[in-house]
Amino acid sequence: MTRTDLSRGSRITPMCRVLISGASVAGPALAYWLNRYGFAVTVVEKASTLRGGGYPIDVRGTALEVVRRMGILPQLQDAHIDLRRVTFLDGDGGEVARVNPHAVTGGVAGQDVEVRRGDLTDALCTAVRNDVEFLFNDSIDTLDQPSGQGVDVTFRGGDSRTFDMVLGADGLHSHTRALLFGPEQQFHRYLGYCFAVFTMRNTFGLSREITMWNTPGRAAALYAAGDDDEVHAFLNFAHPEPPVEAFRHRHPEAQRALVTSAFADAGWEVPGMLAALRDADDLFFDGVSQIRMPRWSSGRVALVGDAAYAPSFLTGQGSSLALVGAYMLAASLAERDHAAGFARYERTTREFVTMNQDQVGESGAGLFPTTARALEQRNDMLRNLSAMPSGKGRPAHSALTLPAAPTLPATAPLT
Predict the structure, then answer these.
(1) Quick one: which H or E segment has residue 329?
(2) Listed residue (321, 1, 316, 26) closest to 176, CA to CA
(3) If you write DSSP's letter for every residue of 5-41 in order, what string do you get?
(4) Count of CB atoms within 10 A of residue 386's CB?
(5) What are phi and psi of 294, to 5 degrees?
(6) Angstrom distance (rounded) from CA 291 to CA 283
(7) pLDDT tens digits, residue range 138-185?
(8) Cβ neighbours of 343 (radius 10 Å)
(9) DSSP letter string over 304-324?
(10) What is the C-alpha to C-alpha distance for residues 175 and 158, in angstroms, rounded to an integer?
(11) Spatial separation of the C-alpha atoms in residues 161 and 280, rounded to whole Å
């Protein structure tokens, strides 16, 4: 099978075989760009199919240019949620402030897009599914680089293959990262909160809006992404140390028990949310955390997106960093030299990543104060925001200019 060179339009025979682990955001975006550069790409995904629906995510700043160059921006704009307002409530359920969503997120009205995660994943995979190999219901079991000339991969399904490079795009709790660099704990930066997300019936009359209740150290939110009969329920609470029992083996009953205990005496709509939590079949629970690594590659294996530099949902930049990181990694590998390419990827991308990870201290954590005084200060800030127009965007979101795709020789050698 042949591939089309991005910049020259020439037909070239793929010479470099790349395995990508993960088919959420970073994985299919990376597959798209590597395919355009002439690589033979295989994507392995442990799920049996693409995940639909999901919590809404944002694409903003430099990432908008990535999806524009992929030709999927119009599709994402059609799926744009167009959130109208965010209403903040006090512990008694009284309104504190009603603000424009962009004033809170630092987004740009009329430019940024907010879509369900499944809509973004579907657009990304549709753009590349006829050009690369997808292996669903499978994952990497072992990686071995015995001679430095390739990567021997054994899959959980029993197959074994050799690739010229392996790229981990398998998320915050990356198995590829664990195989390559060791336990997650050495790179995991816990930010002092845990959260649970699940869907429940929309019996509140909400439409394209968020309503958030707060007391010190606790937040409960209902997110209506459209006019349908479901809302996303969100429960976030301060927990000084990572809850070992809830994280061990990802046990859902331990997670439900921890959340229920944290909100046992809460008012507003929280009792109904806890009742829905007990029966939810789509519960997602995790700690609020980042991944910070001194390097993103070793030998012929590299990481991208949350696997390498998860920023946490407090920044709102997870998907955008994944899209930009995928573009930059593919561009850096355009000449097929993995060592030089991985070094270039880090050199050109790390500052942008760090700037966006550092946003966690500027806005996100401030939405979830842990003391009464800090909560009152946040409420005063929100009251001021309610009288202001939507934001012009944060500099960090657009702090990187994408390189043009280089002109490649049709028979670039492997190194």
Answers:
(1) helix 318-332
(2) 26
(3) -TTT--EE----EEEEE--SSHHHHHHHHHHHTT-EE
(4) 17
(5) -70, -25
(6) 22
(7) 999 999 998 878 999 999 999 999 999 999 999 999 999 999 999 999
(8) 14
(9) -THHHH---TTTT-HHHHHHH
(10) 17
(11) 39
CA distance 364 to 261: 24
**What is the phi-psi region of residue 260: left when phi exceeds 0, alpha when psi lies from -120 to 50, beta otherwise?**
alpha
Tokens representing residue 358 in the block: 């550092």
- Return d(Cα 236, Cα 348) in angstroms, integer: 35
User: CA 115, CA 359: separation in Å to the nearest integer?
Assistant: 21
Which tens digit of pLDDT belongs to each residue from 321-341?
999 999 999 999 998 899 999
CB atoms within 10 A of CB 75: 19
Between helix 270-279 and helix 252-262 the angle, nearest 10°, is 170
Q: What pLDDT is recorded for position 55?
A: 85
Residues 231-257, mean pLDDT to the nearest whole number: 85
Residue showing tokens 């809302």: 231
CA distance 405 to 377: 47
Task: Specify the pTM.
Answer: 0.91
Helix (H, G, I), strand (E, B) or coil at 218: strand
Q: What is the pLDDT of residue 11?
A: 40
pLDDT digits over 271-317, tens only?
999 999 999 999 999 999 999 999 999 999 999 999 999 999 999 99
DSSP line for 164-213: SEEEE---TT-HHHHHHH--GGGTEEEEEEEEEEEEEE--S---SEEEEE
Look at strands 218-224 and 230-238 and give their pairing. Answer: antiparallel
Q: What tens digit of pLDDT does each residue of 381-415 get?
A: 999 877 665 556 788 999 999 998 645 444 344 44
Residue 2 is predicted with a pLDDT of: 30
